[in-house]
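Fold this sequence, please.
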Amino acid sequence: MAKELKVSGRMTVKTLKSQFKENYGSTLRVYNGIKFADEGATLASIRTGDAKGGELTVGGNMKVGNFEDKMKEIFGIKVQVANADDSALADNGITLVAAGK
């Protein structure tokens, strides 16, 4: 069963992506503006707008669209969930676990 993922502004992009892949099997694309974010950057360092920061606990049963919205709301970061081999974006209506299958 998928574990919970705790996301905080101190995490690096690389750590977030690897833990996401490990927990849910799907690929996470993290953006800094319109480009992919630097793997070594912390989430706080690429934050945009007036995002409040903090922490987010993500369960495998969370919908893809809800997760993407929460990341934008809390961290001011655009993310997109893709399938396991990163060849297509996941549907916003499925769970994070389903996206990795």
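DSSP finds three helices and five strands in the chain. The CA atoms of residues 72 and 78 lie 6 Å apart.
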